[in-house]
Design brief:
With about 260 residues, this protein is an alpha+beta fold. The chain is globular, with a radius of gyration of 19 Å. Strand 2 and strand 3 form a beta hairpin. The chain has nine helices and nine strands.
Length: about 260
């Protein structure tokens, strides 16, 4: 995957690097990549394509029903309300719009013997590998991606999550959406990445987080927007004198509670 120099995207990325809202520290990254593969990308792509194109291997590797895994982590995205209407105002902050709609209209990327689907899945993995070169995402499973079928809900999700930051920094919203508009989001397939395992750069403990991929098939580009928030006093623990005693059991309990089909 080749990093693309797009001024609008770079401007938004700079504004997202560190935002202090007082009660939280928000950090985000917005980067665009070409789907052209070269070097190590080709080698990994060939390995993954071979792995996921073998139905027998896929069946053996995945427990029955794992594609319908319900994600229970907290993210500041949207959860469908009991209301039968499908409008942004009828959703609340909690999870990805696609997670709650999965049973009715959405599905995970899935591990199926379809060349286009495999290519898409591999592109998402390669994007993360390129964006975070110190971490290997090759073990990420297809069911950790959920397609977001409603563009308006994704917009509402992002704006709701960053509402306080946008109020504090009036130039953030226009800059951010100008960057996202560079990939023509209404023409994109949009996916959320919901990490199942802890320990990666996108699954660290935080108050909330989201990871959106905007894939434009015609442009052969991927725009990746990842953002998370930590407690505003997160650095205070480093200032505590080493001689001071701390109830780590209570602290861990508290932070854990806070933790965080496409047709081609």
């Amino acid at each position: 995957m080749k990093y693309l120099v797009i001024p609008e995207v770079q401007a938004a990325d700079t504004k997202l690097q560190l935002i202090n809202t007082g009660d939280s520290i928000i950090q985000g990254k917005l980067e665009a990549y070409s789907c052209k593969r070269a070097g190590a990308d080709k080698k990994l792509s060939t390995m993954l394509d071979r792995q996921y194109s073998d139905p027998a291997e896929s069946t053996a590797a995945m427990p029955c029903g794992s594609l319908e895994r319900t994600y229970s982590g907290f993210t500041p995205i949207l959860t469908a309300s009991p209301s039968p209407r499908d409008q942004p105002d009828d959703f609340m902050l909690s999870e990805s719009p696609g997670v709650m709609a999965r049973s009715a209209s959405s599905s995970s990327v899935g591990m199926i013997p379809d060349a286009n689907m495999r290519r898409l899945f591999i592109n998402l993995l390669l994007t993360m590998n390129t964006m975070f070169p110190d971490y290997d995402f090759s073990s990420v499973r297809p069911e950790e991606f959920v397609e977001e079928n409603n563009h308006d809900l994704v917009v509402h999700s992002i704006n709701s999550s960053l509402q306080k930051a946008m109020l504090l920094e009036p130039t953030l919203a226009p800059s951010l959406w100008q960057g996202i508009d560079s990939i023509r989001p209404q023409e994109c397939f949009i996916f959320s990445y919901l990490p199942a395992a802890s320990g990666g750069p996108l699954s660290e403990r935080c108050i909330w987080s989201f990871n959106y991929f905007f894939y434009n098939k015609d442009l052969k580009r991927v725009l990746f927007f990842t953002c998370s928030a930590q407690r505003g006093d997160v650095s205070s623990s480093h200032d505590v004198d080493e001689s001071d005693e701390m109830d780590y059991g209570d602290y861990d309990d508290e932070t854990e509670q806070m933790g965080f089909d496409m047709e081609m």
